[in-house]
Fold these 2 entries.
Entry 1:
Amino acid sequence: MATSAKEKIQQDHLITEETLVDLLKNKDQQALEYLYDHYSPAVYGIVLRIANSEKAAEKIFKEVFSEILKRITEFNFKTERFFDWLLRIARNTALELVSQRGFIQNNQPDIVPVKVHEGFWGNPEPLVSKDFLNTLNPEQKHYLDLIYFQGLTIEQIAEKFNQPVGIVRSKAKAALHMLKALHS
Amino acid sequence: MTTQELLNSGKLELYVLGELSEADAREVETASAGNPEVNEEIRTLQNALRKYIMCFEKTPPLGFKREVLEELLRQGKEKQAEENARKEASEKFEAIKKEAEEKTRTSKVLLPIFIITSVLSLLSAAFFAYRMHNANNSIELLSSDNSLVKEASLKEKEVLLNEIVAVRGTLEQALLSVEVLKDSNYKKINMHTLDGATKVPLYWNKSSGELFIDAALLQPITDDQTYQLWTINEGIPEHSGTVVPQLKYLQKMKNVSVAEEFTLTIEQKGETTDPSFENKYAAVALD
């Protein structure tokens, strides 16, 4: 099975997540390259968004990949999709490293090109060429950014921006509802 | 909480965003386990969030792939080396453990042998110590015996010496007796027992006064009695000496220059000053 999967990687560069995970568990070099080729943009995007610095992101990115390979044996298809697991590991590792090393998360404009539209709390809005993203209002995007990329809890956001917890919770749920609506 | 209540509660959104407490998250997971409607809602929300996240996809810098893969390869080799070292250490540990167990097993087998050997050695040591002790005792006894022997030997030597001295004395007396007998200056004077049956000879040199008696034929007497020789001159007895019966040689008596009579009496031991003529044994009157 492993040999055929490798052959498949060589032939058409298309394998299932299950096969990829099996090969990664066996420390297959071609599977590692396949992982990088197909998943590094998603991982690097998360890391860069969390680290908010290309220099810091490069360092963290290597460690995130290392962490992915280290924990690949923990992965279980029955409980999670591989891509979701990969994003979760990338996010948690990046947040942990940023927290440990004191990287400043202030969404500097040199990290991601932004158009300086002041959001609800005066934060820059990332300028990404995604229609999906553009349909969200700045406030909703900011909430999602605070929760997902900065790892803040509802209570921390409420405290940080001096807002009632209930209001923040409602805004966060509304943002995700909007994402759901846009997705469907 | 019904499915609809759960769907409308907003908990599923917070669950997908990771904003629920552990207890609430567990409640959602339990509710979704056998509930396709809840599962579907969660999956839809996750897909929507994933889509949002993927909006930030960014291709890493060129050449970064090689760096990352080399770094991962290096880490993999280090990890492999660590695993090998750990495995080697583990194998060594197992080998040592096995060896220790083997030794323990061997010890279990050998222990009784060692104990028996030790006991035998101990007994042997005790036996040899006992033998040694006995030997020492024997040596000491021998030494002691030797001392006794020496002592006995000394006593024997002393006895011998005494005997030699006695013999020598006897010999000298004998030689003296011979000289007296050969010397013509000595006059043999026989005393006679009262019954006349036995003669007791005296050899007297009248000029020198030396007097000898031959008591070889005297009869033995009791231990509390002694033979005493008296010289009588002008009716007065004078003690001339104690006579030992049955001696083979001549016994020298006190010098006597003048004598009218010689008398041999049997006296009680210690009585040498006053003869009891009632117990006169032999006598001779001189001319």
Entry 2:
Amino acid sequence: MTKTDSVDATARSVLRDVLGLSEAQVAEFGADTELFGALPELDSMAVAGLLTEIEDRLDIIIEDDEVDGELFENYGNLLKFLETKKQHDR
Amino acid sequence: MIASYTVAGSQEYCVIRSADADVRICLIPPLFDETNRMRRTLIEVMRLLAKDNVGSILPDLPGCNESLADLSNMGFAQWRLAMRAVCKQHRATHSAAFRGGILLDDTLSLPRWRLAPVKGANLLRTMLRTKIASAKEDSISHTMDALMDEGRTNGLELAGNTLSSAMLTDLDSAVPDDGPDIRSVTIGNGEQQIAGSALWLRAEPDYDSDMARSITADLLKWSE
């Protein structure tokens, strides 16, 4: 598994766990898949749990000021942010 | 059956199944919000254990669930004392702790089983984020550091929980301890893993009967 693959897999598994989605549903997520606003379960409270779990599974720290509306606009934005973050933390 | 235990002069509730069985496992619940998302599954685990003639106890932590105690007076010292009290009064032979509950099993002299251990700091971070997010909706801006600085002096209301400065400090520093006689399992499909999903993370409380069966099977094998 490459580094990028593992960030992608981790992001999908956290979304699955937090939102209670099936494996098949998260497998269909593409870069354009809308998250915040499109998934009823994903409210600002769910985002809090999501961020901490992602931090834990990827061993990164996400600062308060890095979290904005765009981050959860679609899956592509989230993945790009996490991949950059993971790269920089190494 | 709803029963009770006494700690620091107060009565707290607990749920008990098969009190007369030879093996009686005290289930230490996840902390704060996470406990609500796991409770139904834990109650099902208790029912399944009873079918195999294994007893179990699920206590309320003082200040949580049906407890009349004031959460703002609690810290880990009080919670650990409560877990020792319930285990002693209901003669637990084993403990099974879930998520943040594992941070409270370290003073029990029982064989310990743990599901998905978590650091206290992670639980705290999620609660701080929730507070920051809800304040943002009211156009108030907070940072984690500033909230913690305030909390260490005056305590803090986080996600509906009034936490004392002691509780915040305890949470911030608590990490799973190591020791003999611990079986630690996580979620997954491998060795030392339980088939299921992270119910405690769910945005909407959910229930998983297969996971309850999987937890029960592991507990039965471990405690026999």
